[in-house]
Every structure is written in structure tokens, then in C-alpha cells.
Amino acid sequence: MRAAGGVMFAGVLLMVDGVMGIIKGISGIASDDVYTRISKYTFKFDVTGWRWIHLVLGVVLVLVGWSILKGAGWARVTGVVLAALNMIANFMWLPYQPIWAIISIAIDGFVIWALCTAPSKAVI
After folding, report:
1. Above 70 in pLDDT, residue 21?
2. What pTM, to 2 d.p., does this model score?
3. Do residues 18 and 65 touch, judged by C-beta distance below 8 A?
């Protein structure tokens, strides 16, 4: 029963992380002055590109988190993959918003752990 609680919590956290991504994307799209432009950073993405990456990834995370709560088997594997991708995206996003990026990385780490360690027959 504890494993089912971990999967449920992971689904909720995935949805929260998705909403945070949506907010990052929308706030960046709404105003050009939200995020600072960093000139000498290894990963040279346009800030406009980051806005859309966070928005799209956030929407997908919310949908997969909801599917995990509904008990879809495919959603657990997809949740692990998307949490890993979101973790990588937030690592590359660190110079723009370090606190929120670290919070998202920590949430993604817990989601990956919870979805990977729960038995495959965990009932929510």
C-alpha cells in the first residue's frame, strides 16, 4: 500500500512540476524581460526557444501525471522518461532561474525514484 501512495504522490508531483513549467513558459512568452540573457553560456539556446520548451514539456507532464493518477500502465514509463528529460532541461536552465531549476530537478528526482521502485501492480 505504501508503494501505491508513492506512485500517487509521484503523479501529483509530476503535475505540479508540469504546472511550474507551464508558468515558466507563459511568463517568458508574455514578457521579454522576465529572463535575463546570458551571453557566455555553454548551452546557447534562444530564450524564446526555452519559453516554448518549458510550456510544451509542462503540458505533457501534466497530462502524464494525470494519467498516472488514473492508473494507466504506460504512464509510469512515460513519466520516468519525461521526468528525466525535464531534469536535463532544468539543468541546462540553471543560469536563467537557479532556484526554480533546482526545485524542479529535486522533484524530478523523486518522481523517477518513486515510479521506478514501486511494484508494477501498485494500485492507486
Report:
1. yes
2. 0.82
3. yes
